[in-house]
Amino acid sequence: VHTSKATKLYLECHGIWTIEHPPYSPDLNPIEHLWWALKRTLHLTHPELDTIGSSQEDWDRFCEALKEAWLAIPNTLICKLIYSMPRRLAAVEEAHGYQTKY
């Protein structure tokens, strides 16, 4: 992510260490699990939105449903994803950058 020389120099000068990993690394992106949960919740609670139109009224309905779906996601899931980061990092390191169970 931080590949420009200026960014690398800034991070190094300020004692901020980074790790090398592929630009697309789902093993290190727990947010992808959260997006999946949001989409699934939205689909289960508002299946009518699968065929939504493009009017302002449709957009407003979608936004309200999205807020409702977001609030329905348990905080425990978010905490679980956050706390999984050390295990994710260790798994990627152990797999030498190759795919992990995450």
Write the layout of secondary structure elements.
Blueprint: H1 5-13, H2 31-45, H3 56-72, H4 75-83, H5 85-94
Helix pairs in contact: 2-3
Along the chain, the helix and strand elements come as HHHHH
Instruction: Calculate Rg over CA atoms.
Output: 19 Å
Q: Low-confidence spans: pLDDT under 50, at least 5 residues?
A: none
Main beta sheet: strand number and arrangement? Answer: none
- Average of pLDDT: 88
Distance between the termini: 20 Å
Structural class: mainly alpha
Question: Any idea what the shape is?
Answer: elongated
Number of strands: 0
Q: Summarize the amount of helix as a percent range.
A: 55-70%
Give the number of helices.
5
β content, as a range? under 5%
Q: Give the oligomeric state of the chains in this entry, treating copies of one chain as homo and distinct chains as hetero.
A: single chain
Organism: Clathrospora elynae
InterPro entries: RNaseH_sf, Tc1-like_DDE_dom
GO molecular function: nucleic acid binding
Protein name: Tc1-like transposase DDE domain-containing protein
